[in-house]
Amino acid sequence: xxxxxxxxxxxxxxxxxxxxxxxxxxxxxxxxxxxxxxxxxxxxxxxxxxxxxxxxxxxxxxxxxxxxxxxxxxxxxxxxxxxxxxxxxxxxxxxxxxxxxx
Length: 102
Hints:
Blueprint: H1 2-45, H2 50-64, H3 68-95
Helix pairs in contact: 1-2, 1-3, 2-3
């Protein structure tokens, strides 16, 4: 009985630690995705939102503090802002001529 409880406890501990590492790994990957997306859009379009940089910095601070859920949320926000920046650049490239007086 004692041996069975020890095995259950060890299995639970290993499962919990692997979830923790996966959360850290996924937060780190999301931050890297946000940074690379930000750099790509900035290079291709010349558009950069300072709020995206702030979200990336906040995600990095959260990961350093061990707040992986918060880091993931901030990184996802940054990724959404990168997509919005890209959309804004496309819209502006297509519509700026309409705003020029004729």
